[in-house]
Amino acid sequence: PKSREDILTTNTDDFIIGDRVWVNGTKPGYIQYLGETQFSPGDWAGVVLDDHSGKNDGSVAGVRYFQCEPKRGVFARLHKLTRYPLLHATPPSSKLSDTPTPPPPIQRCLTPTRTPSPGSRNIREGDRVQVVSSSGPSKSGVLRYLGQTDFAAGEWAGIELDEPVGKNDGTVAGKRYFRCSPNYGLFSPAHKVSRVSGSLDRHRRTHNVGLRA
């Protein structure tokens, strides 16, 4: 088990490709890959660092996950990323802090496509689903979208939540994937979503029958 000191960030579900982060709270860069890898189980973040203090060019053991200059790529667990440098860390130089390297273009053609998990194969648009979160209680709602997105690689599920605890109205970065009320929309990697009951239409039919009775 991870010790408390090893966990720098608990709310890891909010990270998306293109985010500005600090690896271990000390090394600034941009997320270029999110997902599973062949070198170790679980979810990993591939980060392009501002300097050449990394370990690779976006490939590990012959498998390419993203593209960057040699020694600028590094992989880290999501809980080892922070959105700001830690207070006890060595402050970045004024050159880096004043003029950070702009995020590299996302190499979508080089990013491996995640094989749909067994759970994602069993869900369809309209199903009642539950999102498993590592940072809080699970969220329930109706699956409105399932597939690829422009904001991150892999298979994503767009969910209309039962409560206004989401992040959007079905639109991300100006592109609409589905429509719902503000703060009722949430996107999650498909492998974190599971079906909990029948479709929304079935619930509506049951509800209508009860009203007529």
Automatic annotation (TrEMBL):
<dbReference type="GO" id="GO:0005634">
    <property type="term" value="C:nucleus"/>
</dbReference>
<dbReference type="InterPro" id="IPR036859">
    <property type="entry name" value="CAP-Gly_dom_sf"/>
</dbReference>
<dbReference type="GO" id="GO:0005938">
    <property type="term" value="C:cell cortex"/>
</dbReference>
<dbReference type="GO" id="GO:0035371">
    <property type="term" value="C:microtubule plus-end"/>
</dbReference>
<dbReference type="GO" id="GO:0051010">
    <property type="term" value="F:microtubule plus-end binding"/>
</dbReference>
<feature type="domain" description="CAP-Gly">
    <location>
        <begin position="35"/>
        <end position="77"/>
    </location>
</feature>
<protein>
    <submittedName>
        <fullName>CAP-GLY domain-containing linker protein 1</fullName>
    </submittedName>
</protein>
<feature type="domain" description="CAP-Gly">
    <location>
        <begin position="147"/>
        <end position="189"/>
    </location>
</feature>
<dbReference type="InterPro" id="IPR000938">
    <property type="entry name" value="CAP-Gly_domain"/>
</dbReference>
<feature type="region of interest" description="Disordered">
    <location>
        <begin position="89"/>
        <end position="123"/>
    </location>
</feature>
<dbReference type="Pfam" id="PF01302">
    <property type="entry name" value="CAP_GLY"/>
</dbReference>
<feature type="compositionally biased region" description="Polar residues">
    <location>
        <begin position="110"/>
        <end position="120"/>
    </location>
</feature>
<dbReference type="GO" id="GO:0031122">
    <property type="term" value="P:cytoplasmic microtubule organization"/>
</dbReference>
